[in-house]
Specification:
By secondary structure, the chain is an alpha+beta fold. The chain is built from 15 helices and twelve strands. It has three domains: 167 residues, Beta-Lactamase; 119 residues, Beta-Lactamase, CATH 3.30.450; 69 residues, Winged helix-like DNA-binding domain superfamily/Winged helix DNA-binding domain (Arc Repressor Mutant, subunit A, Orthogonal Bundle). It is 43% helix and 20% strand. The strands form three sheets. It has a five-stranded antiparallel beta sheet, sandwiched between helices. Strands 7-6-12-11-10 form a five-stranded antiparallel beta sheet. Strands 8-9 form a two-stranded antiparallel sheet. Strand 6 and strand 7 form a beta hairpin. Helix 12 crosses helix 14, helix 12 packs across helix 15 and helix 13 crosses helix 14.
Length: 376
């Protein structure tokens, strides 16, 4: 298991990165060290433009990052990740046979030259257009992802998810920790600084508006309370836990659903303020956590996920479909995926049967139609 002090220090840095993204490369290096990996990255896959990018990274040279952005994202075997629930740790072997992976262009031309042989990956957040991913890459010196590496990543993942989600809400970019509380006053999400009992020490304008409306949250005396009883109990439990430190928050409260009296749905995210650079904001207000509340987005599946559900495609069939669209015809797809042309043709026949398409051009139009709701 991870040493308690090492783990607590890592979690504190993960939460600091929620409002200081420049910390992510250092945090990724720490995660890679604890899991036993050679590289790591926070990636995004845009299912509309098809572009993949590594926003923060460790262990990959600028040269290979450019190659990935320019070319190899389209051969990356992570496309089936859209099938998996956020927070679930997977490896390359979960969605592509090992021999196919090693025969493909991505491995031969991008991974193998760097000494990379496997990766542990987890979806942090996904929407209709974007899938955010944490990827920890193991090299030949590290070996394949084993059960111990999975367990360690499962311990770390909830904290990374919470940090990324909160970072997306507050979007503070390079805001200084010293001005943390002041900067929070300018965000559109409702924000509250609370102590272990849920007493409100500070709230921004959006937060005060939520309390005034009384549909989702209310002030029970000076305590922040959810209108929904179950959600209120969950929040109180998280506040008490947050008082014991960053690592104690664990998997609780990554996204606490809040139901309004009028049927609207909101989500609350909790950021501990008990250590790291965030402690300055907490100490100034005698607070142990910051609570961010915003309206829940409609859970619309990404185009690949929607296509797979609509036509009951297997991961292999979806992989071939996306390669046909992104790469080209049968020979190029076979070369890119490292499989025989006969295998591509077999999957194509299945795709034609399931979708009703007659030609490869019809498949391209089908994918474009899912990506663009105004098409057709």
């Amino acid at each position: 298991m991870i040493e308690a002090e090492v783990f607590s220090a890592l979690v504190a840095d993960i939460y600091d990165a929620a409002f200081d993204p420049l910390l992510w490369p250092r945090v990724l290096a720490q995660i890679a060290s604890i899991i036993g990996a050679s590289a790591a990255g926070l990636l995004s896959k845009n299912t509309i433009s098809k572009v993949g990018d590594a926003h923060y990274h460790f262990g990959v040279s600028d040269h290979y990052l450019r190659l990935y952005r320019d070319t190899y994202w389209q051969f990356d075997p992570l496309a089936p990740l859209v099938f998996y629930d956020a927070g679930r740790v997977t490896t390359v072997s979960d969605y592509i046979p090992d021999d196919e992976f090693r025969d493909g262009r991505f491995y031969k031309e991008w991974a193998e030259p760097q000494g990379f042989i496997d990766s542990a990956n987890v979806v942090l957040e996904k929407s209709a257009t974007i899938c955010a991913i944490l990827s920890i890459i193991r090299g030949k010196v590290d070996g394949l992802v084993d059960d111990n590496a999975r367990r360690r990543m499962e311990l770390i993942t909830p904290h990374v998810r919470r940090s990324v989600l909160i970072g997306n809400i507050i979007d503070l970019k390079a805001a200084e920790a010293a001005t943390f509380a002041d900067t929070l006053d300018g965000i559109s999400a409702g924000m509250f600084l609370v102590d272990e009992s849920g007493r409100i020490a500070h709230s921004n304008a959006a937060g005060r508006a939520l309390l005034a409306a009384g549909d989702i949250l209310r002030a029970a005396g000076d305590r922040l309370a959810a209108v929904d009883t179950q959600a209120d109990e969950t929040l109180l439990d998280i506040f008490k836990t947050a008082g014991n430190g960053d690592a104690a928050v664990g998997t609780k409260g990554i996204a606490v659903p809040l139901s309004a009296r009028n049927g609207e749905h909101h989500v609350a995210h909790v950021l501990p303020l008990t250590s790291g650079a965030r402690r300055r904001a907490g100490t100034a207000y005698a607070a142990i956590a910051a609570v961010f509340v915003h309206k829940a987005a409609l859970a619309t599946p990404s185009p690949p996920e929607a296509i797979a559900r609509t036509y009951t495609l297997t991961p292999s069939e979806l992989r071939v479909l996306l390669a046909i669209v992104n790469v080209g015809g049968v020979p190029d797809t076979a070369a890119a995926l490292g499989i025989a042309e006969t295998t591509v043709k077999f999957h194509l026949r299945r795709l034609f049967e399931k979708t009703g398409a007659k030609r490869q051009a019809d498949l391209v139009k089908l994918v474009a139609g899912f990506a663009n709701p105004m098409a057709g």
